[in-house]
């Protein structure tokens, strides 16, 4: 990682009781960073911006690039919940950064509002589908004083384009369109309730309240799928929906041009260059859609080839950028990428935050090296072994 600005940093929420010897046991924060409530990392504070309705205007994108350079270390991440993270922010630079983001219309009134506005919007929505209207209604209800007090990671997916594409994106309440009808579905269940687009947001909030009433939250944490797994299901959600599959790849798409980035991270200069090309839709696949573009941009730091080997590796920040990481992740993932048949996830600790679901191949840093999870087997290797014999990945 370059441009580290951790000097003089005081963390807003340091991991409780964190000691060097505790590194093998990752600290579960139970919350995600926001803009008003940043999270400490090894390279400074991480400030997460939630673009409204999943979209950045050219002015907002250019402004974020400028602010990341001025008040962070110039590195910008795309998150798995379609958010934009500025890295390397300091205690001193946080206030002017927030003022700049607020001027761009990207800051909520309070931490509570920011935390609740956890909505992933399908990036392929069109003028004739209800995605934006439902997402806007939902955002308004979640900003209200009487909004349900949901756990920090609880989220909504508004997936109402031609077909669902967000089924693999972490969300607790899903609003989907199947065969032209709008459905409400609790995560963890394949059964849904038919609803109308006009009342979809209200119905989603009602389902969130049901989740709270049924004891979905323990100690401030809880996810819908865990409640459903306990056999607790809402009434009238009885229509089985077909399973939707979607694999995100760079290329031209119904709403423009989708582009990727190594590990979903870009330099501020890259975002500034993209802002010149038009509005951006932020996806949960750590890619951006250049709205309305008919050509793929030829810019440094941008992946446009769907066969690029870097699309086969996912790696969290790892060491030294993350305080909990036992070893680096991205340098190893980059070196192994040409040898990966399908997908490799490299994680700096057991928390696996870059890819919470299973992957065909997973490397998890341990005190001694890396544990390779492949099929049902776990083997242990050093980075040097893996680099010298990448066939170990699939043997
Ligand atoms: S998975 Fe990676 S980014 Fe997440 S806490 Fe562990 S080392 Fe840090």
UniProtKB/TrEMBL annotation:
Keywords assigned by UniProt, alphabetized: 4Fe-4S, Heme, Iron, Iron-sulfur, Metal-binding, Oxidoreductase
EC number: 1.14.13.83
Domain of life per record: Bacteria
Keyword DNA damage listed: no
UniProt xrefs under Pfam families: NIR_SIR_ferr (PF03460)
Signal peptide: none
Domain (Nitrite/Sulfite reductase ferredoxin-like) ranges: 38-103
GO molecular function: precorrin-3B synthase activity
Protein's name in the database: Precorrin-3B synthase
């Amino acid at each position: 990682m370059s441009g580290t600005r951790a000097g003089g940093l005081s963390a807003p929420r340091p991991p409780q009781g964190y000691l060097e010897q505790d590194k093998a046991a990752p600290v579960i924060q139970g919350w995600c960073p926001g803009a008003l409530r940043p999270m400490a990392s090894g390279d400074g504070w991480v400030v997460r911006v939630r673009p409204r309705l999943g979209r950045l205007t050219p002015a907002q994108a250019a402004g974020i690039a400028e602010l990341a350079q001025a008040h962070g270390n110039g590195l910008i991440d795309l998150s798995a919940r379609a958010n934009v993270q500025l890295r390397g922010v300091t205690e001193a630079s946080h206030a002017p950064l927030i003022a700049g983001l607020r001027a761009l219309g990207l800051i909520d009134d309070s931490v509570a509002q920011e935390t609740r506005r956890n909505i992933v919007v399908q990036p392929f929505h069109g003028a004739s589908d209800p995605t934006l209207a439902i997402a806007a209604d939902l955002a308004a209800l979640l900003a209200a004083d009487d909004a349900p007090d949901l756990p920090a990671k609880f989220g909504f997916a508004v997936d109402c384009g031609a077909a669902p594409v967000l089924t693999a994106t972490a969300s607790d309440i899903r609003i989907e369109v199947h065969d032209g009808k709008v459905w409400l579905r609790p995560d963890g269940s394949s059964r849904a309730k038919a609803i109308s687009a006009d009342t979809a947001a209200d119905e989603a909030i009602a389902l969130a309240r049901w989740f709270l009433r049924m004891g979905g939250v323990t100690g401030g944490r809880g996810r819908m799928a865990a409640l459903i797994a306990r056999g607790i299901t809402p009434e009238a959600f009885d229509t089985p929906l077909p399973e939707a599959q979607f694999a995100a790849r760079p290329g031209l798409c119904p709403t423009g041009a989708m582009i990727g980035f190594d590990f979903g991270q870009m330099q501020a200069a890259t975002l500034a260059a993209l802002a010149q090309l038009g509005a951006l839709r932020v996806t949960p696949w750590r890619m951006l859609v250049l709205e309305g573009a008919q050509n793929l941009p030829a810019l440094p730091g941008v992946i446009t080839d769907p066969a690029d080997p870097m699309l086969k590796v996912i790696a969290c920040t790892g060491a030294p950028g993350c305080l909990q990481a036992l070893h680096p992740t991205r340098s190893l993932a980059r070196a192994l990428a040409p040898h990966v048949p399908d997908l490799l996830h490299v994680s700096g600790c057991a928390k696996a935050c870059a890819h919470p679901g299973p992957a065909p191949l997973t490397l998890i840093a341990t005190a001694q090296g890396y544990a390779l999870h492949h099929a049902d087997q776990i083997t242990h290797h050093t980075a040097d072994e893996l680099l010298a014999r990448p066939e170990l990945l699939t043997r």
